[in-house]
Amino acid sequence: MRFSRRFVLTAAAAMVLGAGGGAAVASAATPDSPDSSLWKRTELYFGTAKPGGGEVSEKEFADFSAKDITPRFPDGFTQLESTGQWRSGDGKVVREHSIVLVVLYPPTNQHANDDLEQIRTDYRHLFDQESVLRTDSTARVSF
Predict the structure, then answer these.
(1) In this predicted structure, what is the pLDDT of residue 29?
(2) Is the pLDDT of residue 20 over 50?
(3) What are the helix (H) ranges across 19-111?
(4) Do the beta carbons of residue 112 and residue 30 sit within 8 Å?
């Protein structure tokens, strides 16, 4: 099943992006903005191809998100549909639909790293995945 062209935008992510006139508008977080601060940004890339064939369904991912992601990041996250390509451990090029999870959190969140690693571990085991890519950076945010 192919994921629909949509994304999940929850409270904290909506605040980070800002809202104007009913549409999401990027906030003007500049280094000299008095209300901006540096937060951590982590992206997790979940492949949806199953080793035995087929894909993780939209319902399966929604259930995973409700059970494993939302309880760990109840203030919000953004989920995007994507298509990616990577080389597996056995050298095969794999092209698949993917879900990108974007989480923004203050550097004072002492549990974020463990929570993100547990999400990766749970997904790998639940859907028999070789890996879940993780990237980390900082972002200047303003609410």
Answers:
(1) 54
(2) no
(3) 58-64
(4) no
What's the token pair of residue 11? 């409270």
From the centroid of its chain, how far is CA 35? Answer: 25
For the range 21-28, what are the long-range contacts, defined as Cβ-Cβ under 8 Å and sequence gap of 24 or more?
27/141, 27/142, 27/143, 28/142
Q: Which two tokens stand for residue 28?
A: 């003007």
Distance CA 50, CA 82 (A): 16
Digit-coded pLDDT (tens) for 111-136 = 999 999 999 999 999 999 999 999 99
SS3 8: strand
Contact criterion met (CB below 8 Å) for 76 and 12: yes
Residue of 29, 47, 45, 38 whose CA lies nearest to 104: 38
Q: Which residue shows structure tokens 């999870």?
A: 101
Q: Are 95 and 81 in contact (CB under 8 A)?
A: no
Read off the pLDDT of residues 59-89 as tens digits, 9 standing for 90 and up.
999 999 999 999 999 999 999 999 999 888 8
User: Mind listing the domains of the chain with CATH numbers?
Assistant: 30-142 (3.30.70.120)
Confidence of residue 12 (pLDDT cuts 50, 70, 90): very low
